[in-house]
Each structure stands twice: as C-alpha cells, then as structure tokens.
Write a structure and sequence with these properties.
Mean pLDDT is 94; it is low at 284-297. The chain has helices spanning 11-24, 34-38, 42-48, 60-68, 87-92, 102-109, 137-146, 169-179, 191-196, 346-352, 357-363, and strands at 6-9, 28-32, 54-57, 74-77, 96-99, 117-122, 150-156, 185-187, 204-205, 231-243, 248-249, 255-256, 261-266, 281-283, 296-298, 302-305, 308-313, 321-324, 336-340, 369-371. Helix content is 24%, strand content 24%. The strands form four sheets. It has an eight-stranded parallel beta sheet with strand order 8-7-6-5-4-3-2-9. The chain has a six-stranded antiparallel beta barrel with strand order 10-13-18-17-16-19. A two-stranded antiparallel ribbon has the order 11-12. Bound molecules: pyridoxal-5'-phosphate. Pyridoxal-5'-phosphate binds next to loops.
C-alpha cells in the first residue's frame, strides 16, 4: 500500500468548465495552462481542453512539447521571449508571443527572419506588471507594423481588479482608447472579466482559474457559476489520539483541548503542498465558539472526513496534519479525508489559509500521486 495521499484530476470537469467558458462568450478561447496547467499537469490538461482555440503558457520548452505532440491551436508565450536565440524556435514552431518591453523589440531587430512572427503587444493599463505605457503604444505599433519579422499583431492587456468590486471600467476605457486607431485583434479578459464583463471579450478571452473549477470571485461560488472542481486532494487518517482537557497538539502546542476530545492524524503535510499557515490559532476572543482554558481558540481550516465537515487543529507539519473528530464518532484510522476539491471548495480552504486557490493548486508537490 502506498501512502494514501493523492490528487485526483477529473478530466471531464475540465471539459465541463471549458464549456461554461464557451457558453459565456462568442470570442476565441485562449486557455491559460501556465505553471504546469495550474498544477494539474500540462499535457493532461492540454488534451482535456483540446476543444480550445489556443493555449497560453510561459516556457518555450512546454510550447514545443505541445506542438511536437500534435497540438495545432495557437500557442501564446505570455512573457514572450527572454533571449534572441528563442526567435528561430518561435518561428519554426509557429508560436505567438507577447512583446512587453523595448529590450524584446531590440532582439527582434537583430532577427533576420521575414514575416514569421505573431506578436501580442502588451499594454500596461494600470496593473504595472508587464506592458508598454499607453502613451508609447502608437510608436511601438508603428515600429512593429513595419517590422520585417512580424506577420500579425494582437493588442492585449491584463486586468488587476476584474475579480474585485473595482472592476475593469478604468483600464478597459484606457485600453479601448489606445487600441481605437488599429484594426487588429484584441485580448483582455481573464476568467473574472470573461464571466462578469462581456464588454471585455473582444477577439480572444484568456481564462485560467475557472477552467480548473474555482471561482475567481469571493462572493460567488464555483458551483453557482456551473464550474466543477478538477483537482481533489484526498488522503486518509493514519492514527487517532484521545485528548484530555488541557492536552496540547503538535509543534508549538498551538491547540489545547478545552475538554476531552478525539483527533485524527492525516497523511498530508506542507511537503505535499498543504499550506502550513492553515489551522492558525488566534487569541481567545469573547464569543468564540469553543473557548479553551489555555487562552486559545482555533480557527481551523475546513476539511471533510468521511464526507463530513470538520476542521484542522494546531500547526500543519511536513507530512501530517491534525483534524478534530469530536463530533464524528464513526470515523477512525482509514477514514477518507478530502483536503480540497469534490465537496470541499478549494476557495474556502484558501480563504482560511490566507491565500488563493491558484496558489494551492500550483503548490502541489511531486510526491503527491496523481490519478485521473
Ligand atoms: C496575462 C494573463 N492572462 C490570463 C490569465 C488567466 O487569469 P485567471 O486565471 O484569473 O483566469 C493570467 C493568469 O494570471 C495571465 O497572467
């Protein structure tokens, strides 16, 4: 028997989520599969999303792998190229590539190829991560349109607040202004913009997180959006402990039992990618649901044990974590634990751990067995 932790990747959920994206727009779909398909495995994700119109990622090696495996869709390098030596590969493999700074244009100038490259020119519409400032776009467009190496140009930007109350109004107006003089394709929308702001759809949308079945919004669940979780991280209880009032749990003794209770030890820790900051402990506050004599009350992260909700206790260790079994008398060593995924929304786990679902998905470590 292997250690019981595993990540089940539901490929039909990926197809379902792609379908949800399709239903929301008539634009072409560039599926974002960077970071090893948001931690789900590049090739299996690419195959499950075969009905997409394009793939967006970072590493040229991954792009080449996709082409060599027979994928014919557009493949976009989201950070473009890092050195001039990549340009012949980009041309040979028919990759599209972002250009976001002057250094890349200088490299392009030294490249002797003709009419080979599809460029996505990135406009900085306020996020201040990548892209040319709006006032430089006219000049760069002029340069690229006349450039011997360039075949086609798409104008793109990326939103900082599409998932927040602030929305996209400002950057959308700015981008539309900048793009107005040009009859070129445009791309703006991530998942949040795709789902909430049809005015951003333009020619290409670029959904990522929604394809993996997580909601980009704090106030709308994935289920409400019709999305299905792709990754279910599960394990089992490998031991139980009976605590007396005052007994402490784990490194740093961050949990102290206020009364007799039973806990389960789960084969899952931070070396598997489970966030160590989960199961954090806050000083006891008046009205806290379970005050303890030690002056602490836990604020645990939700988990499912044999399909029933409970919470983590104390500090997550490298290979194990603790769960509260006080109201789950039927559970025991061997009980199945769902850390996130089916029945336990990853967004809820992320919120409790002070992070986002993106980070949890990407943080899964190679020692976790993947099953499909
Ligand atoms: C440029 C760009 N476009 C699209 C996406 C997809 O965003 P999301 O996963 O929020 O849909 C990302 C991801 O961060 C991105 O960097």
């Amino acid at each position: 028997m292997a250690r019981p932790i595993q990540a089940h990747i539901d490929l039909s959920a990926l197809e379902n989520n792609l379908h949800v994206a399709r239903r929301a727009t008539s634009s072409r779909l560039m599926s974002v599969i960077k970071a090893d398909g948001y931690g789900h495995g590049l090739m299996r994700v690419a195959e499950a999303l075969a009905k997409t119109d394009g793939y967006a990622l970072l590493n040229i090696q991954d792009a080449v792998r996709l082409r060599d495996s027979g994928f014919r869709q557009a493949i976009l390098l989201l950070e473009g190229f890092f050195g001039a030596e990549e340009l012949p590969v980009i041309a040979e493999y028919d990759l599209s590539c972002v250009i976001h700074n002057a250094a890349q244009i200088a490299m392009l100038d030294g490249y002797p190829g003709r009419g080979m490259l599809d460029i996505w020119l990135k406009v900085n519409s306020g996020m201040n991560r990548l892209g040319f400032p709006p006032q430089q776009v006219a000049q760069v467009m002029e340069q690229l349109r006349r450039h011997r190496a360039v075949r086609d140009i798409t104008l793109m930007t990326h939103f900082a607040n599409a998932d927040e109350a602030r929305g996209v109004a400002e950057p959308l107006a700015l981008f539309n202004d900048v793009a107005a003089p040009y009859r070129v394709a445009r791309s703006l929308a991530n998942s949040a913009a795709l789902l909430r702001y049809p005015a951003t759809h333009a020619d290409w949308v670029r959904p990522g997180i929604m394809l993996y079945g997580a909601s980009p919004f704090a106030d709308v669940s994935a289920q409400q959006l019709g999305l299905k979780p792709v990754m279910t991280l599960s394990s089992r209880i490998i031991a139980t402990q009976q605590l007396r009032a005052g007994d402490e749990v784990g490194y740093g003794a961050l949990f102290r039992a206020g009364h007799a209770m039973r806990i389960g030890i789960v084969a899952c820790g931070y070396a598997d990618g489970y966030p160590r900051q989960s199961g954090r402990v806050e000083p006891e506050a008046p009205g806290t649901h379970r005050p303890t004599p030690g002056g602490y009350a836990t604020n645990g992260t939700p988990v499912l044990v044999d399909g029933q909700r409970t919470r983590t206790l104390g500090r997550v260790s490298m290979d194990m974590l603790y769960v509260d079994l006080s109201n789950l008398p039927q559970t025991d060593a061997g009980s199945r634990v769902v850390l996130w995924g089916e029945g336990m929304p990853i967004e809820e786990v992320a919120r409790a751990a002070g992070t986002v679902s993106y980070e949890l998905m990407c943080a899964l470590t190679p020692r976790v067995r993947i099953v499909t």
